[in-house]
Design goal:
- With 509 residues, the chain is α+β, with helices and mostly antiparallel strands.
- It contains six helices and 15 strands.
- Strands 1, 3, 4, 6, 11, 12, 13 and 15 form an eight-stranded antiparallel beta sheet that branches. A seven-stranded antiparallel beta sheet has the order 2-5-14-7-8-9-10, with no helix packed on it.
- Helix 4 crosses helix 6.
Length: 509
Amino acid sequence: MSSLKLSLLILTVLSVIFSINTQTVHKRFEYKYSFKPPYLAQKDGTVPFWEYGGNAIASGESVRLAPSLRSQKGAIWTKQPINFDWWEVDVMFKVTGRGRIGADGLAFWYTTQRGDYNGDVFGSSDRWNGLAIMFDSFDNDNKHNNPYIMAVVNDGTKNFDHKSDGSTQLLSGCLRDFRNKPFPTRARIEYYLNTLTVYFHNGMTNNELDYELCFRAENVALPRGGYFGLSAATGGLADDHDVIHLLTTSLHSTQQQGGQQISNDEQQKLSQEYQEYQKKLEQQKTDYRKEHPDEVRDKDGEFDDWFESDGQRELRQIFQGQGQIHDILRDLNKKVDEVIGKQMNSLSMLTAVYSQSQGQPIQPGQAPMQMPSLPIGRQDWDALVANNQLMINTIAELKGFIIDVSRKSDSLLAMGGAGAGAGGAAGGAAINPQFLNEMRDNVNQVKQAVNGVAQRLTQAPQMAAQSACPEVSCVGTTTLLLVVAAQLTLMFLYTLYKERKEAQAKKFF
């Protein structure tokens, strides 16, 4: 029995839940809380049932809340508060500007009191009591997460945090770009049974049904009898903020007391009137066909337009393929937005870890710390590479020069030995003492030159510090001495070779 009672209880609960979820919602267009083109503004410039101020400009096609000039603010509000609990608002707007980055943004308001026309929060008042859907286009906190759509609920006691773009106060939000789109962007805001849902149309297509879910928040309690409003503001950067229409629809459930109930007698009366109207319409069609027989369709070709041709079928397939491609791109865009959101969360976590490692915890609303830059800049790196290449080229030249000197020295020694063998012993006795003295003098000169170079190197360290490569190791002292010794040896061998040639030439005279 206990299991039977439990099963009956579960069935009862499920039936109640199913009846709640499947209850029909009746929609009613509220023209007193809406505006749309054409003839949006009257000849005197007013908008019926609405009031606007600040820098807002109303025309027959749209309401420009803030023009593309610096420090402009404007707003438009309903004259009367709403008299229904649940509602749905469709806002079509365009935010356009010349720059890659815009400012500041646009906001939709539902508040207990109408805000200012030159307020501090997107052109409206701060410390509002109600709901604000903000379309923020400027990145104040430098987190690279704008343009951003967010919902902020305030009870009239909190100031909006501009430094953090309201990240510590938002109810929910999504990262969507709404600037400079080929078609107007749209937002559908629905508040029903304490559930706030925002759908967004990105303006990339002209399809009115191409909405995507931005966010959904439950258990949102808003005050009753509020005012609808729109506002916009610009700062150092400026965009045109144009609202094309705002359409308000009240939502009523069948279980709501204010809903209209139709009795059975009225339903039967309406159905009878509908049947009579259908009979009258058929009679009129028959009379018209009798009076105009030429305009009656041929029955043989009556169904020709019911079937599509090959060309129509190909066009339909092409359009279907383009629609599928667009759906795939839209899904990819959603995935990319999710990946970007995860990356932003990872970046914030890394920033928090870095700040804790530095011993400076992040305070709410505080801008994140910048990571330290590399110890060497791009210019220093280029200079280091250039100096390294110059040093390699110099070493290569020195290597080639030493090899050349060694080769020439070997050839001179060979030629000198051959000349000495051909000269005989007669001239050798006369040349040897003089040759030894000259050789001793040249060696002494080489020693003096080397000692002088060494003294200069030891006495002038500051000159070496002011050289072209202060941070890169230049040519060493040993290498310099070897090069100087090689040059002096080459000069000595060349002098010796020249003297021997002259001595051999004297023998023939």
